[in-house]
Design goal:
The complex is a heterodimer of chains A (153) and B (745). Chain A is an alpha+beta fold and 153 residues long. Chain A folds into two domains: 76 residues, Ubiquitin-like (UB roll) (Roll); 66 residues, [2Fe-2S]-binding domain (DNA polymerase, domain 1, Orthogonal Bundle), CATH 1.10.150.120. Helices cover 35% and strands 15% of the residues of chain A. Chain B has 20 helices and 26 strands. Chain B is α+β, with helices and mostly antiparallel strands and 745 residues long. The longest helix of chain B has 28 residues. Chain B has three domains: 198 residues, 2-Layer Sandwich (Aldehyde Oxidoreductase, domain 4); 160 residues, Aldehyde Oxidoreductase, domain 4; 349 residues, Aldehyde Oxidoreductase, domain 4 (2-Layer Sandwich). Classes of the chains: A alpha+beta (153), B alpha+beta (745). The interface between A and B is large, with 59 and 66 residues.
Chain lengths: 153, 745
């Protein structure tokens, strides 16, 4: 089986896949045991599967593993832990910006990418950056508050 | 005084905690899921006896280290129930909340005190556990009295210690009872703590599950794996009632290690690699019969209105004959309101893992009712209930009965066939296409006003799907030709069809329809959102007819101070100006601006909620922007104000989504709105600031608050659109195209 080499959360990984078109999401979840990125639609419409590829947010459900070869991937697990969350995660926890939490991965990854580009976003910029991430529980106002809180941290 | 048994705390839980299984619970101490690891085999003889919900030990286990574990069949589906239930229990027991952990929805470990739904988590679930804790408190004080050789009434229980109230040496709960059973029946009269002395209930404590959810460490059912597990996908027919004719397995020859499972018209694929299963499900060539049994969604309102009635029922009535009173009223109003099919549209498609063996089965699910799911699976698949263990794990928000029970049946059937554990997650088009739906509703209202604007006649006729006893049929069983019940239910959908204001000659009649298109289900605040949309829209029409301010009109018909409070608060917060509606002003920058109001008492017996909102409508496009929402909310005793706010904010945002965007589309054969492009929901750019005022009533019972705030949202939005434009929208969704059309005509 063809082998694909890339970095995940700073660690070099080498994975096999029978299909070069296999989306990164399945490799992360099933081969590498990283479950933070979630399957939401498989269509790149909802953002639940968002990871960072070279610091930029991508939909891992429509990103073929082949395309990731030689690149650096960051997942939610790579940011921090419950004991030591990074500033975005800490802001989401402080604002209790989750209900079911299924979208939370994508929200935090999109926020991380936003703050990298725009350290002090306006509420409008925050809304725009998250416009491709869906939340069904209606936690939007808290998520936006968390983005602003993280920017101030 | 009942004495606690000195026997060892040996129960099924100990067998299981030291048995083959891994128990997942939330511990507040670590803010992380607590994993209790295993070592031997569970005693199956012990499993035959259900945990008795009349026993304190069924709900609470006291450990020697002073910690307490709650066992409950009510589950936290992102609603904050875990922390709220822990707070109520800790408060009653006089222990720190971080000494409490909770095990939810595991049929081997928790007593069955009902599934999760109808906002019952707090008022029934947590209240049951609180009463068990209050009973335990009395027993612990009794044990303390014996040990300390003082009367129980001179002792207090606080800080995990029983001490003389006057001060002095105490003894810890862990020492008194830790590791042992109480062997006590829950005493419904065991005294509760005086709310004036609360130190834990009422505090905005943080939820234990959020840190794990924000760091990828929360194990959702979608993340659950077991050794030797296969991934499965089910291929649903292209038309709902189609039968499988043939398959061509050569079409998936290139995909590794795939097995096809076919049982009559049930068609599934399994593979060790999930992507292989996904690809095989997509590429497997199958021939199906044609089927065109649906009416199509285009003229659903008319179709529902003309559907065959099972029976009529007067669900509310007051005074005399509305028809006679209507004909003699000074002003007569008539209107028809309608609500379409809507999807739970869970963000994560439903998922389950099943491990079916010769001697029993285990199913991991995010279903809101583990016991209900166990009973149904056992019955349909012919397995004794006690041999089936259903374990709840977190899932994507479900908001009622989504695809969780169906996917469990899919996994069960595939595991049974393969004799290996199988995980099935639905694809996006499965969830949107096949989750049972919030049903369509049609309401016709007639109202009569006297010269002063008082309601002298009110008649609501509603057309809704009848409840048929028995479980909702499982897709897998129907497809596989396995006999099963064909029950039908969508929750208490006939409530709130009458006005919550002073009115004479009121009647609400439900025309229970034999069926409506697509399987009906309970979807958050079942029926009430549409009913309040109609009632509060119609009340707004009455106010406009009389030329009276909408808030003033409502207040005139109310005497309950709790109702008056929420109305005044919501109006004040938005800066309500007293004037009649509509008041379309000349478009400013192409925008028409207005405000709307709605009030309701949930189920006419629970929460009081008022919402006000301000909208701006683009004249050119008809696009509605909600600029601001205020909400005043009274649910009695507040357990955790932050958790409550989160639920209210979510209720409002989700219902704005349902009112602005959501309608399940279907043709003669199938659902056609099967992804987020064809079934759009609210996005960040559309979310307004939401201001919530909580009114706490510490001496009153707590009502569940997971859905009440949804109910007035669509009405206040429609009323605001009317205020801005003079256009009365009586069906959702309020899409730009629909409003643009209405503005032109």
């Amino acid at each position: 089986m063809p082998k694909y080499e890339f970095r995940v959360n700073g660690r070099a990984v080498s994975v096999n896949s029978w299909d070069p078109g296999q989306p990164l999401l399945y490799i992360l979840r099933n081969t590498l045991g990283l479950h933070a990125a979630k399957f939401g639609c498989g269509l790149g419409q909802c953002g639940a599967c968002t990871v960072l590829l070279e610091g930029k947010p991508v939909r891992s459900c429509v990103t073929p593993v082949q395309q990731v070869t030689g690149h650096a991937v960051t997942t939610l697990e790579g940011l921090g832990t419950p004991e030591k969350p990074d500033r975005v995660q800490a802001a989401f926890i402080a604002e209790q910006a989750a209900q079911c939490g299924y979208c939370t991965n994508g929200m935090i990854m999109a926020t991380t990418a936003l703050l990298h580009q725009t350290p002090h976003p306006t509420p409008g910029e925050a809304k725009h950056a998250l416009s491709g991430n869906l939340c069904r529980c209606g936690t939007h106002t808290r998520i936006l508050a968390a983005v602003i809180r993280a920017a101030k941290a | 005084m009942a004495k606690a048994s000195q026997g060892r705390c040996v129960s099924r839980r100990d067998f299981l905690l030291t048995g083959g299984a891994v128990v997942v619970g939330f511990s507040l101490r670590s803010s992380l899921p607590k994993f209790v690891l295993a070592q031997g085999a569970p005693s199956t003889s012990d499993l035959r006896n259900p945990l008795d919900p009349r026993q304190v030990d069924s709900f609470l286990a006291f450990r020697a280290d002073g910690s307490v574990t709650i066992y409950t069949s009510k589950v936290d589906v992102g609603t904050g129930l875990r922390i709220a239930m822990s707070q109520m229990t800790a408060e009653e027991l006089g222990i720190a909340v971080d000494s409490v952990s909770i095990v939810e929805g595991d049929t081997a470990l928790v007593p069955d005190h009902g599934g999760t739904g109808g906002s019952s988590g707090i008022p029934r679930g947590a209240v049951d556990v609180r009463q068990a804790a209050a009973t335990a408190r009395q027993a612990i004080l009794g044990l303390g009295a014996a040990q300390l050789k003082r009367p129980a009434n001179e002792l207090t229980l606080a800080g995990s210690m029983v001490r003389p109230s006057a001060g002095g040496v105490g003894i810890s709960i862990g020492k008194l009872i830790g590791g042992r059973r109480l062997n006590l029946q829950v005493d419904g009269k065991a005294p509760l703590k005086d709310p004036a002395t609360y130190t834990i209930v009422g505090k905005p404590l943080l939820r234990p599950d959020v840190p794990a959810k924000c760091t990828g460490k929360c194990e959702y059912v979608q993340d659950h794996t077991v050794p030797n597990m296969l991934h499965g996908r089910v291929i649903r027919p292209p038309a709902i009632g189609a039968k499988l004719v043939s398959i061509d397995e050569s079409s998936i020859r290139g995909i590794p290690d795939v097995r096809v499972v076919r049982i009559e018209s049930f068609l599934g694929v399994v593979a060790p690699d999930e992507w292989a299963a996904v690809c095989a499900a997509r590429e497997l060539k199958a021939t199906w019969t044609e089927w065109e049994g649906l009416p199509g969604s285009d003229d659903l309102e008319h179709y529902v209105r003309e559907s065959a009635v099972d029976h009529d029922e007067t669900v509310a009535s007051k005074g005399g004959d509305p028809k006679a009173a209507f004909s003699s009223a000074a002003k007569q109003l008539f209107a028809t309101y309608a609500w379409p099919c809507q999807s739970h549209a869970s963000l994560g498609p439903s998922c389950a893992v099943a491990d079916v063996r010769e001697d029993g089965a285990t199913v991991w699910t995010a279903s809101q009712g583990s016991y209900g799911q166990r009973a149904q699976l056992a019955k349909v698949f012919g397995m004794p209930e006690e041999k089936l263990r259903v374990i709840f794990l977190d899932g994507s928000g479900s908001y009622g009965g989504n695809g969780n029970d169906d996917v469990a049946a899919d996994a069960f059937l595939l595991s049974r066939e393969m004799k290996r554990p199988v995980r099935v997650q639905w694809m996006r088009e499965d969830e949107h296409g096949w989750d049972p739906k919030g049903p369509p509703q049609v309401l016709e209202l007639r109202g009569g006003l006297d010269a002063q604007g008082r309601i002298v006649a009110w008649d609501t006729q509603m057309w809704i799907p009848v409840t048929v006893p028995g479980n909702r049929p499982l897709l897998a069983a129907d497809a596989a030709g396995i006999p099963q019940a064909h029950g039908q239910g969508s929750g208490a959908i006939s409530q709130n069809g009458d006005p919550p204001y002073a009115a004479e000659n009121v009647r609400v009649v439900a025309h229970w329809l034999k069926q409506t298109p697509l399987r009906p289900s309970n979807l958050r605040a079942p029926g009430k959102i549409a009913n309040v949309f109609a009632v509060e829209g119609f009340v707004d029409e009455m106010a406009a007819e009389m030329g009276v301010d909408a808030v003033e009109h409502r207040l005139r018909g109310l005497s309950d101070p709790r109702a008056i409070d929420v109305i005044n608060r919501a109006a004040q917060m938005i800066g309500w100006q007293t004037r009649p509606s509509p008041m379309p002003r000349p478009a400013q920058g192409g925008l028409l601006v207005g405000r709307g109001f709605a009030y309701m008492r949930y189920k006419q017996a629970e929460n009081y909620v008022a919402t006000a909102m301000e909208v701006a409508i683009e004249l050119e496009t008809g696009k509605v922007a909600v600029r601001r929402v205020t909400c005043a909310h009274d649910c009695g005793l507040i357990i955790n104000p932050d958790g409550l706010r989160n639920q209210i904010e979510g209720s409002i945002a989700q219902t704005l989504s349902r009112a602005l965007h959501e309608e399940v589309k279907f043709d003669r054969s199938r659902v056609t709105s099967v992804n987020w492009a064809s079934y759009p929901i609210l996005t960040f750019s559309e979310v307004p600031p939401i201001e919530v005022a909580l009114i706490d009533r510490p001496t009153l019972p707590p009502f569940g608050a997971g859905e009440a705030a949804t109910a007035p949202v669509a009405a206040s939005l429609a009323n605001a659109i009317f205020d801005a434009t003079g256009v009365r929208l009586r069906s959702v969704p309020f899409t730009a195209a629909r409003l643009k059309g209405a503005l032109k005509s």
